[in-house]
Amino acid sequence: MRKPKIVILGAGYGGLMTTVNLQKKLGVSEAEIVLVNKNDYHYETTWLHEVSAGTLHHDRSRFKVADVIDKSKVKFVQDTVVDIKTAEKRVILENGELEYDYLVVALGYESETFGIKGLKEYAFSIANINSARQIREHMDYIFATYNNEPVKRDELLTIVVGGAGFTGIELVGELANRVPQLCKEFDIPREKVRIICVEAAPMALPGFDPELVEYAVTQLERKGVEFKIGTAIKECTEDGIIVAKDDQVEEIKAGTVIWAAGVRGSHLIEKAGFENMRGRVKVDPYLRAPGHDDVFIVGDCSLVINEEINRPYPPTAQVAMQEGVTCAKNLAVLVRGQGEMEVFKPDLKGTVCSLGHDDAIGIVFGRKLFGSSASFMKKVVDNRALFLQGGAGLVMKKGKFNFF
Amino acid sequence: MRKPKIVILGAGYGGLMTTVNLQKKLGVSEAEIVLVNKNDYHYETTWLHEVSAGTLHHDRSRFKVADVIDKSKVKFVQDTVVDIKTAEKRVILENGELEYDYLVVALGYESETFGIKGLKEYAFSIANINSARQIREHMDYIFATYNNEPVKRDELLTIVVGGAGFTGIELVGELANRVPQLCKEFDIPREKVRIICVEAAPMALPGFDPELVEYAVTQLERKGVEFKIGTAIKECTEDGIIVAKDDQVEEIKAGTVIWAAGVRGSHLIEKAGFENMRGRVKVDPYLRAPGHDDVFIVGDCSLVINEEINRPYPPTAQVAMQEGVTCAKNLAVLVRGQGEMEVFKPDLKGTVCSLGHDDAIGIVFGRKLFGSSASFMKKVVDNRALFLQGGAGLVMKKGKFNFF
């Protein structure tokens, strides 16, 4: 009898958690498991703001997929997914094709620019390891260029971050730590550099506890970050951005613009024809795509409604990893044809938002945290993610222990 | 009685050697000594190919002027020279003016592009610390960009060095060592990267011993450097260079073009009205500008003829530093109004050309050197320059001891 073939697309939080849980649950004879990923490594998406700012080397935020999978049970294919043909139960790759009996789509997020003119062309976005280290190198190059110009252009040194949501705030926190290092490296007075965070909503970190938000904004302003709240980016140009607040339009010249205000699910979701909202599929209680009993969707391409507030859970690593656990359990039930599938219910332990390596805010188990205790907790969260993906060995290799 | 005022312009090899020798020779009461320099640091110009390639951090190749001058005898002014008015015995600075009784012009070199179209706009040149680290950061950025593009452009990774003279050869030697590190850092296969050295003359290192040149070229080719000898750069564009060999015209697309084929003396020499050839003044036997008994010119702005072969000595650090010693002696004679000025006669100990940190060629005390012994000698030469400028302490701080 042919073993059922499970194909998992993507080795991000959702896909990798599905894989490592599945390889524990299923025996070699029970199923063929194939994991497809563009790169031979997994990266910690939630650490990319540090890589982008240049405060953490990219090699510290990634590890080889081969190091955490059980090669006797999982076949790893390094390739890029081009399309999914659900009717034929086939996946088209750049360099081949795969058939499946069960499919797990864990293709992650993309930047969402909401049609704002020039953002795609002129702004950077934190999409992956490649783009994060490009941001780092761009800033290095801009700072290295400054002192070479016959007439110095201070605006080159302005860094604009679009969005004061979670990613935007964490990014400016790192930048506030990084900029003094850059100034020292390239003989530039600190006061020449501006870090500007622009947010269209009427507050930073919309939806977060107001007391924590006030703490965050005050701390970041103390480190030299300027906030422009209630201010929308209208356009991004070669020279910077054009913003509007009420009816006031202003141009902010900047050598670096980083868009950190919107994400959406993979464009492959739309291409494959799944019913979706901005690349996210509202999955059934077992994490399957509606109308596709053989296709699970986990991570940022999935949409799960929080019934208590009738709004979607945010696309976080925490939710993606918990989906991976449930997805693996449900796949085991289907493969064996026995037992009951589990209904996915996120268990939100809390949220911590870093403000640089030495400060943070958060709510953990319902308790508000500030400063060093929140910063400590952030590193615990980061190390826990590593532990769930690759065990204690991975934590020792890539973990964050600069607690104080 | 007013003390005579000696103003030294530039803290490069020539100016700094004049200063440190002068402060040893003259007492506090004998003269007022003022040293003017654009930066608060001196840098080792002969190490800039390493800074540019990214194999040596720029802070390793510079030190504070304040660390080597005797503040009781020398006043240091950090400013940029704008013009020299010899008739009025005045120097115009960006932020002030200085009068002098004796002037030492040690304003160094500039890049000479011989009118080749586009070089100024699109090619980098190794002029100083600022430009060297910009080259390093540019290459980092280009390599970081490569994997972000939807269609990868291999030509981005091509590095063209214009000129296979001393600087060009030393630069490609460092690049050959640096490129594998860049490839590892940015996940790029080594074979995608080309290092091309273009030289218009019919051989690399024109004028150098042919056996040594052959060794150098063979070793560098083995490390992946491509030579295009007898090939002239006709134009530099945004996309690369256009070269011609015999009547064959070829475009070489490149993400980085570094011009290392020509230097000239400072443009201020011409502006001040000294008789000159490409910013270099043919000085009298005591190193004075013809017709100016109170103006000494040392370093790359001076031109001294080697009578034996009736050609100018090359503008090297070795000659500049020896000129500084003679210049200081002669100034002491003039200030005291006693003794005889010394005729400048270079004592050429040899030349060593590095081929990366682990290889070199050279002629030292008339003996040919290859490989590790030449590489060792190169580091001895570098450390000796530091010793002459700032003593044993400076050698310990900035010296090169990675001998093997």
Automatic annotation (TrEMBL), chains A, B:
InterPro entries: FAD/NAD-bd_sf (IPR036188), FAD/NAD-binding_dom (IPR023753), NADH-Q_oxidoreductase (IPR051169). The keyword Oxidoreductase applies. Its EC number is 1.6.5.-. Keywords: FAD, Flavoprotein, Oxidoreductase. Coiled coil: none annotated. Its cofactor is FAD. Residues 5-324 form the FAD/NAD(P)-binding domain. The keyword Flavoprotein applies. Belongs to the NADH dehydrogenase family. This is NAD(P)/FAD-dependent oxidoreductase. It comes from Bacillus songklensis.
